[in-house]
Amino acid sequence: MDDPRSLFDLTGKVACITGASSGLGRRAAIALSAAGARVVSVARRKDALQSLTAEIGGDAACVAADVADRENLGSLCGAISAPFGSPDILIHAAGVNTRQPADEVTPEGWDQTLALNLSTPFFLSQALVPAMKKKSWGRIVNFASLQTTRAFPGGIAYGASKAGVGQLTRATAEAWSPYGITANAIGPGFFPTELTQAIFDDDDRANRNAAQTCIGRNGRLEDLDGPLLFLCSDASSFVTGQVLMVDGGFTAK
């Protein structure tokens, strides 16, 4: 039997991560690069992307773009594929949470949330899947949420988009897994990111969230490394259409 550790080796693979300028996307780029992947990071903030690319080193590139701009999707895919070829791995970490209460949800906030959190993962995947089909190998990892199944205050638009991500993951697995492409999602609990800064700035709220988990603490960015490597590698070749909750057991209680 070959060394089981080789199942997690991403040497020779090209990974594209959206939302890589900060938070969970940035961590994903660092983790996949450490496992041997050539990484293309995508986000709007050019300076943050360049800093990340410099930190990773030679097998890294970045593309500064608005991934929700569907009119320029073709040029975006060209820019993503230019440094190392078309991606084998696609991680959709870009996201937004307007936190508008139900009675204050605006059409603009709703459309912005659904466009970035739900529409972009589908249409960007759709555009890059043909190259994965030619290789008979691909990994798509979406980002779900606690709100994929739970209702939180101020989370109408965000929760609707993340519930959609759960079904998007199942539906794209049904469509593309016969071609060697798996589609799965990670559902993070509470991790310290820009999106959750207000929560972690409130000690009482952060402590309540930690107490809600089975483990008894909130997430650390390194807690994502193993699940990400699993879903992006040969280790998960028979796993598709699944939402893996990385939440310390928050949704188990």
Molecular structure report:
It is built from eight helices and seven strands. The longest helix has 29 residues, at 107-135. It has one domain: 3-Layer(aba) Sandwich (Rossmann fold), CATH 3.40.50.720. The protein has a seven-stranded parallel sheet with strand order 3-2-1-4-5-6-7, sandwiched between helices. It has 253 residues and is of the alpha/beta class. One of its GO terms (molecular function) is gluconate 5-dehydrogenase activity.
Explain the layout of strands and helices.
Layout lengths: L13 E5 L4 H12 L3 E6 L2 H11 L3 E5 L8 H9 L7 E4 L14 H29 L2 E6 L12 H21 L4 E8 L8 H5 L1 H10 L12 H8 L10 E4 L7
Parallel strand pairs: 1-2, 1-4, 2-3, 4-5, 5-6, 6-7
Helix pairs in contact: 1-8, 4-5
Short structural summary:
The protein has eight helices and seven strands; from the N terminus they run E-H-E-H-E-H-E-H-E-H-E-H-H-H-E. The chain has 253 residues and is of the alpha/beta class. It has a seven-stranded parallel beta sheet with strand order 3-2-1-4-5-6-7, sandwiched between helices.
Question: Low-confidence parts, pLDDT < 50 over ≥5 residues?
Answer: none
What is the CATH C-level name? Alpha Beta
CATH superfamily: NAD(P)-binding Rossmann-like Domain
Q: What is the straight-line distance between the termini?
A: 39 Å
For the biggest sheet, the summary is:
7 strands, parallel
Residues in helix, %: 40-55%
Query: Could you please say which CATH topology applies here?
Result: Rossmann fold
Strand content: 15-25%
Summed up, the domain count is: 1
- Structural class, from helix and strand content? alpha/beta
Average predicted local confidence, pLDDT: 96
Q: What's the architecture in CATH terms?
A: 3-Layer(aba) Sandwich
Extended strand count: 7
